[in-house]
Automatic annotation (TrEMBL):
This is Uncharacterized protein. The chain holds residues 436 to 724 of 747 of the full protein. It comes from the Bacteria.
Amino acid sequence: EAKTRGPGTVALYTQELEAAVVGRTTLESELRTALAGTVSQFVLHYQPVVDLRSGEVVAVESLVRWQHPVLGLVPPDRFIPMAEATGLIHPLGGWVLDQAVRDAGNLTYDGRELYVAVNFSVLQLNDEAVLQVRQVLESSGLTPGRLILEVTESALVQDEDAVVRALEALAQLGVHVAIDDFGTGYSSLHYLRRYPINIIKIDREFVAGIGTSVDDEAICESIVHLAEAVGAMTVAEGVETPEQYAFLRSLGCHHGQGFLWSPPVPAERLPAALAACGEVPVPSTTSPP
Ligand code: C2E
Ligand code: MG
Ligand code: MG
Ligand code: MG
């Protein structure tokens, strides 16, 4: 696929290409080099998050990509686990936080300020991260309440008390915390009890089944009710169809994001993507779930 593209375009990343070009240890050492380099090989894309009632954009989520010189744009699932395993998640996470606030910290939509959501590995949640968040907030002047940290439980937590301490310190600062990919992996009810959580993100695995799987629909509904019961907001991920939008809206799910409105786009294309979100029809309240 990559070789069919013309000169000046980047290769289309595939796992086959990666395997053909570099092995795992090479990619790891290249990740190290990329992070040490002065010219960043990383880039953030942004996806709008929409209020399901009004259809208005309320936030953007930053999603990191690695602009690899040979492989092209490498998706985060291919290198975040490696970064977590090697400790490189700390410098990478620091860069992401800084860049996201720089790119999106003063974004507005229709004159309203938007929330900025940044993904955080649970392994990043320590005292140092709290200091870093405090520094970024101070130097940027971003209102703490406009920053959302989306925590993914991608690895088992060794020191749960340290994570709880960090989350409580972040809550003290006024930063919002979301639990990402809720219902999958290690993200469990246990963490809902232990962590101060403001937002639950319904994993797109469940959203994808709306309209075809009564089980997935029941799971979405239960998560919305659960969130209400613990006083958290809900955000649905991976909303692709008007039917999914209508169903989630009728459940009372607060926010949504997905290809229905926009894929993640580079910062320079964000204003156009935000404007296009306004064109997506809001389902009528009478549409059946
Ligand atoms: P996530 O935070 O749950 O992000 C949602 C993923 O779903 C993104 O994949 C996004 O591009 C994709 N997506 C959004 N809308 C749709 C849709 O309508 N349909 C489908 N099929 N997919 C959709 P992406 O960008 O590849 O990111 C994957 C994961 O990598 C993220 O999942 C997050 O856990 C992690 N990640 C991304 N950026 C960072 C980061 O800066 N730091 C950390 N620690 N993890 C990150
Ligand atoms: Mg996320
Ligand atoms: Mg997610
Ligand atoms: Mg995810």
